[in-house]
Amino acid sequence: MAVAKITKRSVDEIGKGEVVWDSDVKGFGIRRQTTDAVFYLLRYRHNGKQSFYSIGRNGSPWTPETARRQAQRLLGVVAEGRDPLAERQSERQTKPETTFGDEVERYITKREGEVRPFTFSGLKAVLREYCKPLHPLGLGEIDRRQIAVLLNDIEKDRGPVSRNRARSTLSAFCNWLCKEGLIETNPVTNTNKAPEFERERVLSDDEVREVWGSLSGQFGDIVRLLLLTGQRRNEIGGLAWSEVSLASGGLISFPSERMKNGNEHKLPLSPQAKAILERQRRRNDRDFVFGFSSRGFAAWSTAKASLDEAILAKRQAINPKAKALPHWTLHDLRRTFSTRLHELGVQPHIVEACLCHISGHKGGVAGRYNHAQYLGPMREALELWANKVDEITA
């Protein structure tokens, strides 16, 4: 059993799974769990029974000095014949416990403006939608098993990538709760990550034809635009009329706050893409063309599942034993768009401009001196691809 003066150095150097007791204050100690978290604790006896009181995790407000003073105060409580652990448990039972949902909203309010809008949108979706089953629970009720069950459900409904992104967001939130002194340990620690594989799916001509032929309604028009423009789903799903100009050839001007890389993006429209936008009904009560992104991540999942069912139904109408289209995602349309433009002979820097990628001609030092928008060549490339889609789906 290690005994030493507990200082910042001893906190930094303690090994995983080890406990060190302070040489100055009897019963005061530190313990490092299997993670990097170090906790201050007090061991004491009350009525002949030994108890361990967790003072808190190292970090604001707990330092070796503040934790030592707290240990001394608690020892004074024991000297008076009282049990500090029993008093804390009694206080928790009588005091309404803060719920997970309450702290989610406080955390979201704090994070707004600290991260990019694209990241903030994902953060809100995970904590408000994916984690909704945890919202009614008190913070003290949430343990690793519940987190593991939630992550398994997310993976089942949305796939391994969504599970891992949700796990990362949830872990950051729980670390914040620890630093706020609301929980002692991060329950996400030591939960499993799902294996991720390099996403390389590019749809064949036959698959493009099947997808296109099964599209219907507003979601169908969103998918058509995703294939014709190569943009991300949130960029098209959240498109606003104020971003669209249908004059002349047509142009979408995405503001910087809506783009993943934080750069404004101007996208010329092919006649086919322009026609899709022209047939959308404008509403006086909202600026959204589709407003799909505002419905949350669950809406995307439901609509995509319905599309897959429609594709399978058409397959089975021809062959009752037909199987579903091999797994694909909406982001595969962006990869298909990029691949096909290169195959059609479009210059790589024009493809990158269409995708709003910062690399090659726009990356590093070159990007600081090259502010060309390439709108003319981009329009030619988009029209070339749209005509090819017409040919494939005719």
Main attributes of the structure:
394 residues; alpha+beta; Double Stranded RNA Binding Domain; hpI Integrase, Chain A; 3 domains; five-stranded mixed sheet; elongated
Residue-averaged pLDDT: 88
CATH architecture designation of the largest domain: Orthogonal Bundle
Strand content: 5-15%
The CATH homologous superfamily of the largest domain: Intergrase catalytic core
CATH class of the largest domain: Mainly Alpha
Task: Report strand order across the widest sheet.
Answer: 1-2-3-4-5
Structural category: alpha+beta
Describe the structure in your own words.
Helix content is 50%, strand content 10%. The N and C termini lie far apart (78 Å). The protein is elongated, with a radius of gyration of 28 Å. It has helices at residues 8-13, 64-79, 84-94, 100-111, 117-130, 144-158, 160-179, 205-213, 217-229, 233-237, 271-278, 297-318, 331-343, 348-355, 364-369, 375-393; strands spanning 2-4, 19-22, 28-32, 38-46, 49-57, 244-245, 251-254, 265-268. It folds into three domains: 2-94, Double Stranded RNA Binding Domain (2-Layer Sandwich), CATH 3.30.160.390; 100-179, DNA polymerase, domain 1; 205-393, Orthogonal Bundle (hpI Integrase, Chain A), CATH 1.10.443.10. The strands form two sheets. Strands 1-2-3-4-5 form a five-stranded mixed beta sheet. A three-stranded antiparallel beta sheet has the order 6-7-8. The chain has 394 residues and is an alpha+beta fold. A hairpin with a 5-residue loop joins strand 2 (19-22) and strand 3 (28-32).
